[in-house]
Design a protein that fits this description.
Helices cover 34% and strands 26% of the residues. A hairpin with a 2-residue loop joins strand 2 and strand 3.
Amino acid sequence: METQYAFLSGRIDLVVFADDNPLIAIENKIDAPIGAGKGDDDQLATYGQWIVSTNQSSFPAVVCLLTHIREPSEDFLDGGKKSGGATPHVLKWGLLSAILKDVAGGLVADTTTLISELLLFLGEMNMDHDFAGRDDFAAALVYLRAGSRMDHTFDTIYQHVKKLPGCFATGSSIHEMSLHYDTKYSLIWGWKYLSHPSLSGLFFGYGIALSPALTFAGAAAPTRDAVFLCVGAEGNRSMQALRHAKDIPEKPWTFADLGEWSAVICFKSFHSFMADPEKFAPQMIEWINEISSDVNEFVASNLK
């Protein structure tokens, strides 16, 4: 067994060997998104391709997602391209915790000690179960009290974006949101669709990225919480147009492809707001005003 196993396309969290033959590639997640892999594939597909190509035994090559709450793509467990041709498997940390508790009593002392330490760690991290615990309910109650103020803050930004000229000036869509808590991508954000003569999937996004370097893999993204502004695209035609024009905006703009949507995006510091959070909406509006003319020019002149 080897951790952080290096190969040409990156590092695999854990590789299990049988007689020096790679047999199982394991990607460990808590709630971070599945990262990008080789080409258009994600991490799991890329690791699956590698384990299949290197497995010389009579046993099937396996790619496994060991996870707390992050789920793989919908068709990962179907095998095929999404698992890189390897046998797919998903194991939850909560289930692993239950298995370890069940078998620990019959093992030798040294092994039992290791299991106890792992179980203690999983408990401290609230990873020994999948359902909400005491701390989760407490956090939810706090959120309910703060939710209306968050709604007001982000709706203030959204209402301002709606009044901007050019491509911003479109009718409201039922698919727009002034505030959305996106657990899949660890985003607190909103978006407004943009008008374009031939592309219907363009939008302007704004908000907070909790894990920007992981969410926007491949982009020049910060590792800490950050505010972001973006011109995004969903749907094949709009995403293709954005990819073709991704190198036109100059730094600090950078390009990110999340699979479901892509974006030309820039980041701002979030931690400066923690001392005076009431400045968040006014400062966001100021930043949006500064880039609105550039967004209009980019959408009108470069997205075909």
